[in-house]
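Sample entry follows:

_____
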Amino acid sequence: MPKWAHLGLAVLLSISTTLVGAAEIDWWENASLYQIYPRSFQDSDGDGIGDLKGITSRLSYLKEIGITATWLSPIFTSPMSDFGYDISNFYDIDPIFGTLDDFDALIVEAKSLGVKIILDFVPNHSSDENEWFEKSVNREDGYDDFYMWDDGKLNEETGEREPPSNWVSVFSGPMWTWNEKRQQFFLHQFQVKQPDLNFTNPMVREHMLDVLKFWLDRGVDGFRIDAVPHIYEHRNADGSYPDEPVSGWGSDPNAYDYHDHIYTKDQPATVDLMYEWREFLDNYRAQNGGESRVLLAEAYSSVETLSAYFGNSTHQGTQLPMNFQLMYLSGYSTAEDVVGSIDYWMNTMWKEHQTANWVVGNHDTNRVADRMGAHKVDLLNVIVNALPGASVTYYGEEIGMSNVDVECTGDSCEDRDGERTPMQWTAGKNADFSDGESTWLPLSPEYQRYNVQTERGVSRSSLNIFKGLQALKSSAAFMAFKDDGGFSYEAVTKQVLQIIRTNKISEEYRILVNMGNDIEILDGLASKTYEYVLATAYSTHYPGQKADLSARIILMPYEAVVLRWLA
């Protein structure tokens, strides 16, 4: 037994392995990405709302848990009709979160720690309080068609103007709204207060490139592009907009799912725009040096469409079209279901591009503990970090946070607030998120059990399992996943998932995950003897214990283990 084995996870984190047999990869290809919802990560001034100074004070935690880069949800000036996704000034920080000086200080601290910063980029629309929209309403020179405007259709019976098409907003209701001052309809794929920019206008594209450059010059390492499929809409040759067909999925004509969005989603021009932005970032790197600046694309689209966003032999697009397949798993999902979700991505994106990423959750989706059950949080964290490619973790998932029941009162209430509650740092007042009297959303009633401080001291806590997984991602076997196919995955039974990572020379890991509620007995998985290096809370095994895989191995319900073989 190696000297370190009996010491467990703490020593595992300090292991450095020579990278034997690993092809050269860019930093984002094997990254551990972490999404921060700025309102809820850390409050520095006692107003109960998280801010940039708060994030800066907690960056060392990201280094501690092995994060490569963190993506910040919008922090730009906004009236907050859609909690920052309605931007009134793309070049400044909203006072809720701080100042540009605070942002610069965050960048300095992040670079000193080696943690990269990725910003949310919201190009599809602005706030109706943005000066660009005001200029467009007034038809100022250069801004006349900065947004999507149309006269609409004249109803000959009533003499009134009607929307130019039957398009329905993502948030329900017409996608077209009449502007009395301009005497035209404007298009908004989301809220009325979020008018869509017109990307057929070269000036709009130039403005957005200028936004990217502004933040690149301030030191950011990339962007997560919001709502990618909605950026372009189809327009007929005569300038009219075609009606979208009925989908057959609902009975309410004002609901988004009522129509099949063949004219307002995933248009070919959107793909070209991704190529344009990637080229801009690559040119910026060529001129300014440093590592690759990354583009992540939020697109709830088919994997085939995401493949187009990534690029082809002549054009490079977004490095990480975000993969939400594992977010559709439920508490009833089996290992076979997991393999099906993995296959859907790998059969297209990996075969064509050798790229992968796995998203655990985000600010619009119930937390894993609610989607799958608290007993399966560690299982999903093991899976997404054991598979080849980048992992994307929503803040708090590493400690098993769950949704909080939030009472909806007032216009600012969101039905998505349950997954946006404050980060749980300690068992103290306000979970050490804020020293104010209250927090903008209520804390989980379970924060005294599920918090960073407590879980640091529990050897098999979700936090320590997460840390151990990040340490493994820098091993020779985990880094050798390009070209030579140093990985495989399969459902060895209906409920047991096996993932193998190897450099095919000196090191191999077998990850076994029991998704079911029964004991699983496995015979003859391999001819070699392995050693346990990681085991979740439901396991009866311990680091350093030997495992002869030519014989029988027993997995408890909801158990996940990582086994290692060294030549």
User: Anything to note?
Assistant: The domain at 483-566 is CATH 2.60.40.1180 (Immunoglobulin-like). The two ends are 14 Å apart (CA to CA). The first strand starts at residue 32 and ends at 36. Residues 1-21 have pLDDT under 50 and may be disordered.
